[in-house]
Design brief:
heterodimer; A: 583 residues; alpha+beta; PmbA/TldD fold; eight-stranded mixed β-sheet; 13 helices; B: 224 residues; six-stranded antiparallel β-sheet; 38% strand
């Protein structure tokens, strides 16, 4: 291999090679498969000359010893002094508003494949992002040199950018008023910090999960444990000094079985979810598990996950998929488990109700929305009357849960769809006025100190039924249907209208009973037709969170973590295709 | 700090290599000074600047390799970075694709560093040109301009030495009709920002070839 110049400092390299939001959102291993091989080799610690790190959150940040992740960051007295230096410099340079985010972002990723550890990566990134409003224009600049002098200088770079943008201003930014909260703090309620658990113990868990899958029929397995800690200090000229300690965790795997005679292979991914919890998520608890419909041997996990049991089941199911009956295309009533439906909610409700997409701010990258302000004014149904969808950044255990967003707004819950009608969008301080709202929804986020904060999807969740309904009762009323668990590959257009979704596990339902497992299932519909076919959900007992760490938006592109809650839900008469068909 | 000269960069890399105890060691510096502007609905949405340098060290013991990076350049941090690369290398499995590092090479020195630099003002002007063109035709532009100066320097224990500066300007724009039902996309890039004409580069907005209409409902019946 010849020596090459690698663009080491551009974290978006591989994203640019795909330039496709659908890839960014999909599961981790989907990412790894889509990276160039050299990048994956770099990731797995086998690099031979490739000085390149891919764009998982924290990759490209400085690797550190695991022990470093437990060391405290700067104390709030120091951070307040630094923040004030930046705010004062911004005001002196003409800013009418300024905010400062001092961020320390800690990540640890552990990867294992079959019987080997592939890589253990611990990273730290520390720096400051400063956003200013001068004469109605935004400016932003960031620095990794965290001193009072550097912050003041960076604030002036930001104001210079804002002043240059005056040239292009049509309408001044209208910032919804926000009260200052003074000095406050918030921490993800965790029982055990993941960084406190010895690396050896975490490696043993992954290797044990791999062994469980291999012993039960899988030929290959990749497993990973993602651990994230965002230590964020936000200060603004509104008088807020907000110190937050945010924790997220995601254990996951993909098990593959191969028929060596035919070359056919099938995979089954983990039924876990990324969570806003500590390492306690990995302590199995019977009260946090719920059985799927009788006859499916699937298990739904709430706020605790049994990785070993799921991996063992995945080994069996991956192997069984090689000989399962291939689905007959046609119209079916679908019974969708929350671990599957969460992705459909994300794509067909979460994205089209982002106000920046609706207005066209994302037209050049992530896409737009069919649910424009004009569309909303027509008062057309988004779904059937049983569809009630809420946005929030509050749900315990969700990855979107924080006390305050990245522009200093206390988080909350609000309605997006009420009884089938679109009633609201997702918006931040400079968007609220567009829909005549007095205040922000509190859903601004930046993936790091070096990126500017902007509107990001909060948790978007389908309310469960208020009347009691179990998943077995739901299945018992279905004459010809398919039960789907787990999220698979998908495709949706740039306006979030026509789509297709696969899954992990599929079971035929005939005359109210689960009859047999199926393969090669995907359904095709459009957002209005699909949600219009919604025939109700199970109750709160079945409610669970789906999520992702990799919701991509913005230029330069940023990743955001988001959860989607729902109970098992029925959709009538949906078109199902056979994905193994020859075309 | 962001754009080191050849001499500054090689002096730093030489020092880093002197800390190595590995069989082979390759070190590189990458630095950038960039800025961006993003606009939509014919006005600016976000604009920012970045300024950074990072060092990467690859240490090898036999066929085992480890990489560490840092973005602070005091002697203690540099030594720790080399140590970390060596610790990781010792723990790594042997690479079946191991190839020895290259020795000294002759590289071309293309005149890739452009004289004209992007500034906050020139970025805003480019955005203004693009928006004005579209607004005049009752079209809406959503675009992104990102660019700046970078340098890369390499050195290894086999005597290889390289240094290069580069500039880039990347521009992309999506142009939509007033009813939001038609859109076109164009990209342009240049090593010299003076050569990127935001009025011309997003070419003719939107030609028939580019236009995509509002998606219509689809069903398996009309899918092959």
């Amino acid at each position: 291999m010849s020596v090459q110049f690698f663009n080491f400092t551009d974290p978006d390299d591989w994203l640019l090679t795909t330039n496709n939001e659908q890839l960014i959102i999909n599961h981790t291993f989907f990412h790894l498969q889509h990276m160039k091989r050299r990048d994956f080799v770099g990731l797995s610690g086998l690099a031979a000359g490739a000085l390149f790190l891919p764009s998982l959150p924290g990759f490209g940040h400085t690797p550190v010893d695991p022990g470093r992740l437990l060391e405290p960051g700067a104390d709030v007295i120091l951070k307040k002094r630094l923040a004030d230096a930046a705010l004062n410099a911004a005001k002196a340079s003409g800013a009418s508003y300024a905010d400062v985010r001092i961020g320390r972002y800690l990540n640890q990723y552990i990867f294992a494949r079959e019987k080997q550890v592939q890589n253990i990566v611990s990273t730290e990134s520390y720096g400051v992002g400063i956003r200013v409003l001068v004469n109605g224009c935004w400016g932003f600049a960031s620095t990794s040199v965290v001193t009072e002098a550097s912050l003041a200088a960076t604030a002036r770079v930001a104001t210079d950018i804002a002043k240059a943008n005056r040239l292009v201003m049509k309408e001044p930014v209208q910032l919804a008023p926000q009260q200052g909260y003074g000095e406050v703090s918030w921490k993800t309620p965790i029982e055990q910090g993941a960084f406190e658990v010895p690396v050896k113990q975490k490696v043993e868990l992954l290797l044990a999960a791999n062994a469980a899958a291999l012993d039960n029929g899988a030929n290959y397995i990749n497993s990973g444990l993602f651990q994230v800690n965002e230590q964020k200090y936000f200060a603004s000229t509104d008088g807020s000094y907000i110190d937050q300690d945010v924790h997220r965790l995601w254990p996951t795997f993909s098990a593959t079985a191969v028929d060596t005679k035919t070359g056919k292979f099938r995979s089954r991914e983990a039924l876990s979810a990324p969570v806003g919890l500590g390492y306690e998520y990995l302590s199995p608890s019977a009260s946090q598990q719920i059985a799927g419909p009788q006859g499916t041997n699937t298990v739904g996990y709430k706020l605790r996950y049994d990785m070993l049991a799921d991996a063992a089941m995945a080994g069996k199911q991956a192997k069984a998929k090689l000989t399962m009956k291939s689905v007959t295309p046609g119209k079916y009533d679908l019974v969708l488990d929350p671990g599957h439906l969460g992705l459909t909610i994300h794509e067909s409700v979460g994205h089209p109700t982002e106000l920046d997409r609706v207005l066209g701010y994302e037209a050049n990258f992530a896409g737009t929305s069919f649910a424009t302000l004009e569309w909303k004014a027509k008062n057309l149904p988004y779904g059937s009357k049983v569809v009630n969808i809420v946005a929030d950044k509050l749900q315990p255990g969700s990855v979107g849960s924080v006390g305050y967003d990245d522009e200093g707004v206390k988080t909350r819950e609000w309605d997006l769809i009420k009884e089938g009608k679109l009633v609201n969008y997702q918006k931040i301080r400079d968007q609220a006025h567009i829909v005549n709202q007095k205040e922000s929804d509190g859903c601004a986020y930046a993936q790091s100190w070096e990126n500017v904060q902007f509107q990001r999807m909060p948790n978007v969740s389908l309310r469960p039924s208020a009347t009691a309904l179990s998943v077995d009762e739901m299945v018992s009323k279905v004459d010809k249907g398919i039960y789907i668990a787990g999220a698979g590959s998908f495709s949706i257009d740039q306006q979030r209208f026509n789509f297709q979704f696969g899954g992990q596990l599929f079971y035929a339902i005939e005359k109210g009973k689960i009859t047999e497992p199926l393969e090669d299932v995907a359904y095709q519909s459009n957002t209005q037709e699909f949600w219009g076919a919604c025939a109700g959900s199970c109750d709160q007992r079945d409610y669970r969170l789906f999520g992702t760490f990799f919701d991509g938006k913005g230029q330069p592109s940023q990743s955001s973590a988001v959860s989607h809650g729902s109970a098992t839900t029925r959709f009538n008469g949906v078109n199902v295709i056979n994905t193994a068909r020859k075309v | 700090m962001a754009i080191l000269s050849k001499d500054e960069a090689q002096a730093l890399l030489k020092k880093v290599l002197s800390y190595s105890t590995a069989d082979e060691c390759a070190v590189s510096l990458n630095g950038l000074n960039t800025g961006n502007i993003r606009y939509a609905r014919n006005s600016v949405s976000t604009a920012g600047a970045a300024d950074s340098v990072s060092l990467a060290v690859e240490s090898r013991f036999g066929k085992r390799s480890g990489i560490a990076t840092c973005n602070e350049f005091d002697d203690t941090t540099l030594k720790r970075c080399v140590q970390r690369a060596e610790e990781i290398a010792r723990l790594a499995p042997e690479s079946p694709e191991y190839m020895p590092l290259l020795g000294p090479q002759n590289y071309l020195a293309p005149p890739s560093a452009a004289a004209t630099l992007l500034t906050a003002t020139t970025r805003a002007q480019a955005a203004a040109d693009s928006m004005a063109l579209c607004a005049a035709k009752n079209l809406t532009a959503a675009g992104f301009l990102d660019g700046g100066t970078r340098f890369q320097a390499l050195r290894n224990s086999k005597g290889l030495e390289a240094y290069q500066q580069s500039t880039n300007t990347d521009f992309s724009v999506t142009v939509r009709t007033a009813d939001g039902r038609g859109s076109g996309y164009a990209i342009g890039d240049a090593t010299d920002p003076a050569k990127l004409n935001a009025k011309a580069s997003p070419s003719a907005p939107p030609t028939k070839r580019w236009v995509r209409r509002m998606p219509r409902p689809s069903s398996p019946a009309n899918t092959p």
